[in-house]
Write a structure and sequence with these properties.
Distance between the termini: 22 Å
Shape: globular
Strand content: over 45%
Largest sheet: 6 strands, antiparallel
Order of helices and strands: EEEEHEEEEEEEE
Number of helices: 1
Number of strands: 12
Strand order of the largest sheet: 4-5-2-9-12-7
Length: 160
């Protein structure tokens, strides 16, 4: 949820970055196309993009996702627009076919097409050497559509 935003107009250049090592990249959207973005991954957008957000449902996803409670959605309201995102480490784009699935650590995804369904999976680790570990929480993505995955992520510090 943006609290402070800057608008740049006119000819020239502008630079922007995130406060961590990673990959800054632009995604071109065509008119009517939307993209869901993990909270805190968005850097900049052309004014042709509309912004909204949705609260992530599910206690486990909120407690173990690493960053927050919201998914930002950007929709192109003009013939074209550009959305600049940041991913920690390297960012890889996967294209899932219909009903194709991939499990991703909760803090590991950057963006997805709205056609890609996301669900939180909580798996109890109750046998063998993992018995004391508790539970494993991850997101399961089901296609069709694109999914951006980052090779690392930064846990947001907890408030004291």
């Amino acid at each position: 949820m943006p609290v402070f935003m800057v608008q740049a107009l006119g000819p020239g250049q502008i630079g922007f970055s995130r406060d961590g090592a990673g990959h800054v990249f632009g995604i071109h959207l065509q008119g009517g196309q939307s993209l869901d973005v993990r909270e805190h991954q968005w850097l900049a957008a052309t004014e042709s993009l509309d912004f909204t957000f949705n609260r992530v449902k599910g206690f486990a996803n909120m407690m173990f996702s690493g960053t927050g409670f919201f998914i930002d959605t950007f929709t192109c309201m003009a013939p074209q627009g550009i959305l600049w995102l940041h991913g920690y480490g390297n960012v890889f784009e996967l294209t899932l076919g219909p009903n194709q699935q991939i499990d991703v650590e909760s803090g590991g995804w950057v963006y997805k097409d709205p056609s890609v369904r996301m669900e939180t999976v909580v798996q109890q680790l109750s046998t063998g050497i993992f018995a004391s570990a508790g539970q494993l929480v991850f997101n399961r993505f089901t296609g069709p559509g694109r999914l951006g995955v980052q090779s690392m992520y930064i846990h947001m510090p907890e408030a004291n």
